Amino acid sequence: MVDVIAFDGDDTLWHNETVFSLTQEKFRDLLCAYAPQAEIDAALLATETRNLRLFGYGIKGFTLSMIESAIELTRGRVSATDIHTMIEAGKDMLEHPVELLDGVRETVEWAARDRRAMVITKGDLFDQESKLARSGLADLLWKVEIVSEKDPDTYRRILEIHEIDPGGFLMVGNSVKSDILPVLEAGGRAVHIPYEITWAHEHVEPDPAATFPTLEHIRQLPELVKDGLP
């Protein structure tokens, strides 16, 4: 029996990657005179990945990575005006309205009614706390965990701290790499609900040994739980 249902935040409960995608388009436009689009995208992804250990996930690290990538791609010729534009773009992202995905409110209400509902999300603490507060979902949640990384040890720690039986734990998220595979390794169960855009860093090769349900829409979750998870 599922006793605790945990939801990922970004791109599971509210839109996130679309905001990053729009900002990356602006970044390409700023640098199109210096490099082709593919090179710009590859440089930014490489810089973001390299900087994760220093900045972690989130908008602030993304903004710093844009600036660093611009300096490298232009060999130091990027203008102060363009750097200012990148900083303002990062601020706009931080202030972007929190838009819940369709069906989220009703599904979280359902989860909180008969079970313990929680959010486990990764990223910048201040930004994620702000998103959660603005989402209107906070009062429905039993617990909230904002973590720097989602790996099996992180999930095991959360389960232990909150005295959750792994067999009764269900994680719902859009990332197979962060929300599905590490939960299965930690002994829990997971449901994948893909988002329309996936950050390249979150792509993972399919694991034939990992079995988990995939839903088209979060509204399908109550019926899946009612019918029994595999």
Written account of the structure:
- The protein is elongated.
- The N and C termini lie close together (11 Å).
- By secondary structure, it is α/β, with parallel strands linked by helices.
- It is built from nine helices and five strands; from the N terminus they run βαααααβαβαβαβα.
- Helix 6 links the parallel strand 2 and strand 3.
- The mean pLDDT is 93.
- It has two domains: 140 residues, HAD superfamily/HAD-like (Rossmann fold), CATH 3.40.50.1000; 78 residues, Orthogonal Bundle (DNA polymerase, domain 1), CATH 1.10.150.240.
- Strands 3-2-1-4-5 form a five-stranded parallel β-sheet, sandwiched between helices.
- Helix 3 packs antiparallel against helix 4.
Task: Draw up the topology in text.
Blueprint: E1 4-7, H1 17-31, H2 37-55, H3 59-73, H4 80-94, H5 104-114, E2 116-122, H6 125-135, E3 143-147, H7 152-161, E4 169-173, H8 176-185, E5 189-192, H9 221-227
Parallel strand pairs: 1-2, 1-4, 2-3, 4-5
Helix pairs in contact: 1-4, 2-3, 3-4, 7-8
In short:
With 230 residues, the chain is an alpha/beta fold. Helices cover 49% and strands 11% of the residues. The protein has two domains: 4-14 and 99-227, 3-Layer(aba) Sandwich (Rossmann fold); 17-94, Putative phosphatase, domain 2 (DNA polymerase, domain 1).
